[in-house]
């Protein structure tokens, strides 16, 4: 084996090692990150209480019922969060930690695969997000990179993270509403 | 895992639509077999989707499958009640009337609320599992493969006692299509689980073509994302392609009997574009699950 390929192999191994170490560290979370994410989880919990204002969806043969319930839920939440603004869920501390996680992930050796995952969702870069606004039904769902999801706080099953252009979004998937977003979080 | 292609026809004649009668069913139609169809990326509400559904009916007359797996992008564009009816209820009503069940996986053009739509049999979940004969099916949500879903999958796979373990979801782990290609990040996460717990076959959609990939690490991958949509000429056959078809819409018919799975891929015009069988290596499957 020539020295150059050997060096390349060593670099890849070291890169992978430092990446694993970095990720292990991020999984362990610094006290600052742990505190920010604990605060975020609390806010998500409070949001979930709002969703209880309208009876939960049940399986139905009638698609009209699905449509009506989604409208009713969206309307109710829009009323209850009338004064909601960007940063209510993703406070500056939470946003900073999420940006750090995204940056670390996007600088890892897996970055090109992760970008490809995002492209799989056929992202629409020009969509303008509005807090409490509806996530348009014609807009494809984000294909969220599993590697990124591993390092973010877990959400209840009717909420999801998404990416629209470079913005990182928190969605209410049952009401199909934009709950909050971090502008320009994706490098 | 052994695959035996029995017929490989790339039918250019399929470019011209003819309302052909169902041709020969190549499946063995054995007593007590598990019979199903697979469709993906179909929910357009446009004429090709209706024509594929009509062709499925022709074949149903000869090969009465009891359920259909849906590989995502079940409802494109508008999701109102009227749109749901136009893009699902209308084309597949004859099957539902005949008692055929549909089991959906979510695609990137779907709304997660579809999990509450009873005819999709998702039981209100984004991902779920069910058994049919000696096979267990795992419908996954590849849009959002979070740790919770991965833990669930590992638990379900590890406790499965079924001979056949079949996973399906929207994004293909292996694909020779030019538009998206393989979902390599997802592959890195799912493939080790599939290997560890003896998954034999995986179905996906997303790419608007049909492709059967040569066994990868012992697993056979099918992409069927052309049951309504079509990206004609998008398949760039590679070394991993066993068979592919990108000249017309298509659907899959599958039969499981004992240790054998038989498949037949049919075009919108009724021509068979791929068929063959997969033999389950019982010893290898047992070894991987022990």
Task: Explain what this protein looks like in three dimensions.
The complex is a heterodimer of chains A (187) and B (290). Chain A is 50% helix and 10% strand. With 187 residues, chain A is mostly helical. Chain A has one domain. Chain A has a 3-stranded antiparallel β-sheet, with no helix packed on it. The two termini of chain A are 37 Å apart. Chain B is α/β, with parallel strands linked by helices. Chain B has a single domain, classed as Metallo-dependent phosphatases (Purple Acid Phosphatase, chain A, domain 2), CATH 3.60.21.10. Chain B is built from 5 helices and 14 strands. Chain B has helices at residues 47-60, 81-97, 147-159, 184-196, 282-289; strands at 2-7, 34-39, 67-70, 101-104, 128-132, 135-139, 164-168, 201-204, 210-216, 219-224, 241-245, 250-257, 260-267, 272-279. In chain B, strand 7 (164-168), helix 4 and strand 8 form a beta-alpha-beta unit. Chain B is globular and about 40 Å long. Residues 7-20 and 286-290 of chain B have low confidence and may be disordered. Chains A and B meet through helix 3, helix 5 and helix 6 of A and helix 2, helix 3 and helix 4 of B.
List keywords for this structure.
heterodimer; A: 187 residues; 3 strands; 50% helix; B: 290 residues; Purple Acid Phosphatase, chain A, domain 2; 7-stranded mixed β-sheet; 22% helix; 28% strand; disordered C terminus
Topology:
The complex is a heterodimer of chains A (187) and B (290).
Chain A: H1 3-28, H2 31-51, H3 63-80, H4 92-106, H5 111-120, H6 146-149, E1 159-164, E2 167-172, E3 177-182
Antiparallel strand pairs in A: 1-2, 2-3
Chain B: E1 2-7, E2 34-39, H1 47-60, E3 67-70, H2 81-97, E4 101-104, E5 128-132, E6 135-139, H3 147-159, E7 164-168, H4 184-196, E8 201-204, E9 210-216, E10 219-224, E11 241-245, E12 250-257, E13 260-267, E14 272-279, H5 282-289
Parallel strand pairs in B: 2-3, 3-4, 6-7, 7-8, 8-10
Antiparallel strand pairs in B: 1-14, 2-12, 5-6, 9-10, 9-11, 12-13, 13-14
Helix pairs in contact in B: 1-2
